């Protein structure tokens, strides 16, 4: 490896392996997640050969995984003086990673669901076969997801300092909300 000073400690290995396991549970390829974890921990950009060696995975798997991470906008290509190879590093910090993952999942998963729900609601106007119960459920799902996505859009524009303050407030914020009337 080009940088013999960068070695994986047992703690780093545990972190990387666990991140890979979690990625699998979230529907992301294990190697993709492990490479992201490795690059997150690395103090400097790594090239594909270094990643292959450090994780003991096939070079083709590393190439495909890096392309996937780039498509998610989680990893960027950087260049090192005197080295023609591409080097890779994570984009931004922990907050950037968090919001990038949420935005990508929204774009890839929730936006198509919202499009389908809007189409269903339009079609319900002419549909005489679908029961009122099913129509109500589709409308409830559309209303719920639309509200959650609007909330996300508002939260995503807050400065980090405000987000941190909001998180630290935790359930204390409930005291500022109107009380629910007893039935």
Topology overview:
Layout: H1 10-25, H2 30-41, E1 46-47, H3 48-55, H4 59-71, E2 75-80, E3 83-90, H5 94-124, H6 132-156, H7 160-169
Helix pairs in contact: 1-2, 2-4, 3-4, 5-6
Using brief descriptors, characterize the structure shown:
183 residues, mainly alpha, Arc Repressor Mutant, subunit A, three-stranded antiparallel sheet, 7 helices, 63% helix, extended, MJ1563, transcription regulation, WH_DNA-bd_sf, HTH-GbsR_regulator, transcription
- CATH first level of the largest domain: which class? Mainly Alpha
Q: Helical region count?
A: 7
**Main β sheet profile:** 3 strands, antiparallel
Q: Count the strands?
A: 3
CATH architecture type of the largest domain: Orthogonal Bundle
The largest sheet has its strands arranged as 1-3-2
- DSSP strand (E) fraction? 5-15%
* Unreliable parts: none
Radius of gyration: 22 Å
Count of the domains: 2
End-to-end distance, in Å? 69 Å
Determine the structural class based on helices, strands and strand pairing. Answer: mainly alpha
CATH fold topology of the largest domain: Arc Repressor Mutant, subunit A
Q: How is this structure best described in words?
A:
This is HTH-type transcriptional regulator. Keywords: DNA-binding, Transcription, Transcription regulation. Belongs to the GbsR family. It comes from Simiduia curdlanivorans. There is one protein chain. With 183 residues, this protein is mainly alpha-helical. The protein folds into two domains: 10-90, Arc Repressor Mutant, subunit A, CATH 1.10.10; 94-170. 63% of the residues lie in helices and 9% in strands. It is built from seven helices and three strands. It has helices at residues 10-25, 30-41, 48-55, 59-71, 94-124, 132-156, 160-169; strands spanning 46-47, 75-80, 83-90. It has a three-stranded antiparallel sheet. The chain is extended and about 65 Å long.
């Amino acid at each position: 490896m080009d940088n013999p000073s960068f070695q994986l400690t047992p703690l780093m290995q545990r972190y990387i392996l666990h991140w890979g396991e979690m990625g699998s549970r979230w529907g992301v390829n294990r190697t993709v997640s492990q490479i992201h974890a490795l690059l997150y921990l690395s103090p400097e950009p790594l090239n594909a050969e270094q990643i292959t060696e450090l994780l003991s995975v096939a070079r083709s798997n590393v190439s495909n995984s890096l392309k996937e991470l780039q498509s998610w906008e989680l990893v960027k290509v950087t260049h090192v003086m005197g080295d023609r190879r591409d080097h890779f590093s994570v984009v931004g910090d922990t907050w950037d990673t968090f919001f990038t993952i949420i935005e990508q999942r929204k774009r890839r998963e929730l936006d198509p669901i919202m499009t389908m729900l809007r189409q269903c609601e339009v079609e319900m106007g002419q549909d005489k076969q679908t029961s009122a119960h099913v129509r109500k459920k589709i409308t409830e799902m559309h209303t719920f997801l639309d509200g959650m996505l609007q909330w996300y859009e508002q939260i995503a524009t807050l400065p980090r300092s405000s987000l941190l303050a909001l998180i630290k407030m935790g359930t204390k914020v409930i005291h500022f909300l109107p009380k629910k009337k007893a039935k």
